[in-house]
Design a protein that fits this description.
four-stranded parallel β-sheet, alpha/beta, Rossmann fold, globular, two-stranded antiparallel ribbon, 260 residues
């Protein structure tokens, strides 16, 4: 199974000799990371990984042939302890997740690759990925990057901001994308609206702002959803997919030629 990735860009399809023969000065290896965790009563626990696959496959298909980018299989297990206790959530401890990222990237460095991009599609992984890439840089000397496609480029205002920044889990955004890529797995009749009124009164989304605080999902939502999934549509999802895929493709092209 190549996880929807174009076969000519799926690194594990190559033989050892083919990997050795690759020109590696500008080749980029993408390590996709996501999660298996509850996504409310209406979305599958594989949601983050499915969205990740869809975005990456579209991004790679759009790249010019001369841009040398290869994908690893996605790592579907991340740091999801904010969803601990919900049936179907399967996650790694912070310590294990850190080690797995370092060891996978270390193996890629030993294979001669000089550019690695960790493509993250789960907010719970963000803090770890942010500091692990510097450790990998220091330990192996490779250029290593973190990509989170839902974050606007260069601080520009994102044309798609469901829920004003409070739509962070299984709400309008994620439900829309799932309606676009796997509608048969979306239970639309069960989709809730669970906007965090107390957080909105406080004036800070749960992460990414000037004030950050620790939370578990039961602290901020009774449904396991943060956002308004009732506003989702496949049309919105297709717009979001196109935006994220074009963003990832543009960043991978930049990474392939980046120099300090």
């Amino acid at each position: 199974m190549n996880y929807q990735i174009p076969p000519d860009r799926f690194l594990p399809y190559l033989t050892t000799a083919e990997v050795e023969a690759l020109p590696k000065e500008h080749a980029v290896v993408v390590l996709p990371v996501a999660a298996i965790e509850q996504h409310g009563p209406h979305l599958p626990v594989f949601t983050d990984t499915m969205i990740l696959n869809a975005v990456l496959s579209r991004a790679l298909e759009s790249l010019d042939a001369e841009v040398s980018v290869f994908a690893m299989p996605p790592l579907p297990y991340g740091k999801s302890n904010e969803h601990a206790g919900y049936a179907g959530t399967v996650y790694l401890s912070s310590e294990t997740f850190i080690t797995v990222l370092k060891e996978i990237c270390g193996c890629l460095a030993k294979s001669g690759f000089k550019r690695i991009a960790i493509l993250n599609c789960h907010g719970g992984n963000t803090e770890i990925v942010s500091f692990v890439i510097r450790d990998i840089r220091e330990q192996h000397g490779v250029k290593v990057f973190s990509i989170e496609p839902w974050r606007p480029l260069g601080g520009a205002k994102d044309p798609i901001t469901p829920g004003g920044g409070y739509d962070i889990h299984a709400g309008e955004g994620e439900t829309s994308v799932m309606l676009a890529i796997a509608p048969s797995l979306v239970h639309e009749g069960l989709a809730p609206s669970s906007m965090p009124s107390k957080l909105q009164e406080m004036g800070y989304p749960p992460g990414g702002g000037a004030l950050t605080f620790a939370w578990l999902m039961p602290d901020i939502s009774a449904t396991g959803v943060v956002g308004d999934a009732t506003k989702a549509s496949a049309e919105k999802g297709r717009v979001m997919l196109d935006l994220y895929a074009s963003r990832v493709a543009a960043l991978l092209q930049k990474i392939s030629v980046f120099e300090f």
